[in-house]
TrEMBL record:
It comes from the Bacteria. This is DUF1801 domain-containing protein. Pfam families: DUF1801 (PF08818). InterPro entries: YdhG-like. Residues 32-129 form the YdhG-like domain.
Amino acid sequence: MAETKTRATAASVDDFIAAAEPPQRSEDAKIVDAMLRRVTGETPKMWGPTIVGYGQYHYRYDSGHEGDMCRLGFSPRKTQLVLYVLTGAEGEDALLAKLGKHSTGKSCLYIKKLADVDMGLLEEIARRSLACMKEKYPI
């Protein structure tokens, strides 16, 4: 069975965020980091080389594959911020409809600039996601 590549590492979150390009991405990443620290009460760790993660949970699929992953996270990529905060929690679609300029993937929220979104709604999405994750994966 394939081994999980994305694991918690000892790499510096602060150094990773400071090195994000362009410079505005680094500034936006600092704001997201502060928000997710507040929402989760967790000190972040690097998960693999590119994901800043908060908290941890253990998953096991029907196939037998299992592993650990961060409960919430983000990655300040060159073209956009990727937030790993979408769970399909009740009310999530309504909040996304009012959030501002963004796109979504399966569990990802893509934002080009934080100035394009309502930060209060973004924080509420993160809070609901965390609650959903804690319910689904209590440990």
